Amino acid sequence: MSRTTDILLTALAPAIWGSTYLVTTEALPAGYPVTLAALRALPAGMLLLALTRCLPPRAWLGRVFLLGCFNFALFWALLFVAAYRLPGGLAATLGSLQAMMVILMARGWLGTPIRAGAVAAAAVGVLGVALLLIGPEAALDPVGVAAGLGGAASMAAGTVLSRKWQPPVSALSFTAWQLTAGGLILLPFVLIMEPALPPLTMTNIAGLLWLGLIGAAATYALWFRGVARIEPGAVSILGMMSPVTAVFLGWVLLGQTLSLVQGIGAAIVLGAVWAGQRANRPPAGDATARPAMRARSPFKTGVSG
């Protein structure tokens, strides 16, 4: 597939993630963040494992659990802390710093050159998210700010390491491994930290199915596919599509107002995402731009059943 097709497919993931806030607030019981995160990750991961019938070899377990922690368990936990302690706009703006963190981490871990245009696009994108979401009521809570920055760093590390560690399996299998690992990491914290969920309504179940099957299994498969094919800086700035979708859904479905400043912010974010793709495009003939095609997997993929 062309690079443009890869970018568009990868951008679907953060665009769909923008529905998470709407689904969480409108369809799920409040006050169970760790439990809901585990229910989002573990069933989806186990379903994908059953579909792909591909288990990670023992030598990969450490990497898989580290990636599951960065991309899911730690990231989602810190995300909920930031969301509870900060206005949503400020939390999302801190999260958008992930694009800059990825550029720096990719330099250190992958040797990817730092391009001035990519840094500028990421910085402009952060400004656009701030205009889109931050209101006059924004207040700085130290714990919330630390959680927001930690969550951005966790997702950035997971993105870069997912590029660095590429097993010779499909993106769907790689997603299954990480989702399952992240859910297993969260499970003991659910038992220790939170009470049992109340009886779930049909709306609750529908919300969990959306977040698990679409918002986790399908979208992260697209995301990890993109991570393997597109430059890290180009992938990370696509994450700024999420707050744009969140604001759009709030305007269309919840009747929330959309001010001129927010409209300008959305336009800036979309412009930054476009500029980020151009700035991160590798020079023609750069053999390091894309990883080599994966060989046929030597792993044991047949699981009885």
Automatic annotation (TrEMBL):
Pfam families: EamA. Signal peptide: none annotated. Keywords: Membrane, Transmembrane, Transmembrane helix. InterPro entries: AA-Vitamin_Transporters (IPR050638), EamA_dom (IPR000620), EmrE-like (IPR037185). It is found in: Membrane. The chain crosses the membrane at residues 7-24, 30-52, 64-84, 90-110, 117-136, 142-162, 174-193, 205-223, 235-254, 260-276. It is a multi-pass membrane protein. It comes from the Bacteria. Residues 7-133, 144-274 form the EamA domain. GO terms for cellular component: membrane. Residues 280-305 are annotated as: Disordered. Belongs to the EamA transporter family. This is EamA family transporter. It comes from Psychromarinibacter sediminicola.
